[in-house]
Specification:
The protein is α/β, with parallel strands linked by helices. It is built from eleven helices and 21 strands. Strand 2 and strand 3 form a beta hairpin.
Length: 411
């Protein structure tokens, strides 16, 4: 394995200037989740890179429920001679508005690259591409299938990509997700579950001065709900509830008939996740009195990813490869949800945070540690080789089979 890692490292090092050039090119493309043209342009560039590696590339359309049209994902496939089926997962979209790439262009300073999406997830996407390049250069084919997918809507909960991800999950044993490593270099072994809870309040309008008693003030009901939702914090040690949106009324002299709240609910364990969502429903029911009605909608739910035995076996393999490379790569749980949550819920063995080291995601100061690119891309490529080895593959596949059975029982 040591000789293999040296060869992979050498190839990644040789290709580092190309990685940086491609990173600058991708960051220069605005690709906020709602920017179809920009997301598609990023996908076009990634598809070209995958085609250059000899992958069979398709562009399946991802359409969210109720949407008039969708945005194409990128799916590249290799077939090999081994047993393990590996899925690499990244995303093409960012959280940034159109014009951000021009206002805050790609830059390098003191060993860091900055720019919109440089870490989340353009640096991670390219880590997957260049790991595959190193494996192709090595001539590695000790796998049954390797599939690379870049989805177009991860930053809004992957509403259009869920069906595609579920299909791919059924076809693979292991998912290696390309979000960047944590700031301390940790790889991600678990993520909190998250759901956006939308509460619509309906009351009755009336003239605020002449006949306010005929109205039912939806804004007041919503304000009380916001306080009650905030009070859920602390009920469970791993649950957070944040009322991020509160809207109601249009004019001060009208009793408002409608109001809306949107709360971000997160939890680390499936039990507390379910209990917290049930508690929100309970608050909505109790607030539906005195002429007011409150409806609840759960948008883009992503269940908690608590590491399974199968995921821990993949993490152990990653730890072994990191040690051989002299990397201090720990493992961490994180509060942010991602496509890893959905794949774990479908029963795959999952490991995330396999891109280079980055930080300050979703902010003006988002950065990528350029010095981490070569070692982390080598780690990803070396992990795939390690997972395909005979003494690992049986253990990982048996763990993946048990995870699927467990996911089936809880579905």
């Amino acid at each position: 394995m040591r000789d293999t890692l040296e060869l992979l490292h050498r190839r990644v090092e040789e290709r580092y200037p190309s990685y940086v050039a491609e990173l600058a090119a991708l960051v220069a493309i605005d690709s906020g989740s709602g920017d179809r043209a920009g997301v598609e342009a990023v996908g076009d560039r990634v598809a070209t890179l995958l085609s250059g590696l000899g992958m069979t590339v398709s562009r399946p359309l991802c359409v969210a429920a109720g949407a008039a049209d969708g945005v194409p994902a990128v799916v590249g496939r290799w077939r090999g001679t081994g047993r393990l089926r590996v899925l690499l997962v990244g995303h093409l979209d960012t959280v940034f508005a159109a014009g951000t790439a021009a206002a805050r262009p790609y830059a390098e300073r003191d060993g860091r690259a900055t720019g919109p999406g440089v870490s989340d997830d353009k640096g991670g996407l390219l880590a997957g591409v260049f790991a595959l390049d190193a494996l192709r250069h090595l001539g590695w084919d000790d796998f049954a299938a390797v599939t690379f997918v870049g989805v177009p809507d991860e930053e809004v909960g992957s509403p259009g990509s869920r069906e595609l991800l579920a299909r791919l999950a059924a076809e693979h044993d292991v998912a290696l997700c390309l979000e960047c490593a944590r700031e301390d270099g940790s790889v991600v072994i678990g993520r909190k579950g998250v759901v956006d809870v939308v509460l619509e309040v309906r009351g009755r309008s009336a003239h605020a001065g002449v006949e306010p008693e005929r109205g039912v003030n939806a804004a007041v009901v919503a304000a009380g709900l916001a306080v009650d939702l905030a009070a859920l914090n602390g009920r469970w040690p791993d649950v957070t509830v944040n009322v991020g949106v509160l809207r109601g009324g249009e004019r001060p002299n009208v009793v408002p008939a409608r109001a809306c709240l949107v709360a971000d609910v997160r939890a680390a364990s499936p039990a507390s996740y379910d209990e917290a969502v049930a508690a929100v429903h309970g608050l909505a029911e109790r607030s539906s009195t005195g002429g007011a009605t409150v409806t609840v909608e759960l948008r883009a739910p992503a269940p908690p990813w608590a590491p399974s035995e199968a995921s821990r076996r993949v993490a152990a393999a990653a730890g072994d490869v990191a040690a051989r490379l002299g990397l201090d790569a720990g493992f961490a749980l994180t509060g942010g949800a991602a496509d890893a949550n959905l794949l774990a819920a479908d029963g795959l063995a999952v490991l995330d945070g396999l891109g280079p080291v980055g930080g300050d995601d979703h902010s003006l100061s988002e950065w990528l540690d350029l010095g981490s690119v070569v070692p982390r891309v080598t780690l990803l490529a070396g992990l795939m080789v390690e997972l395909g080895a005979a003494d690992r593959v049986t253990s990982v596949m048996s763990g993946a089979s048990a995870s699927r059975q467990d996911a089936s029982r809880h579905s």
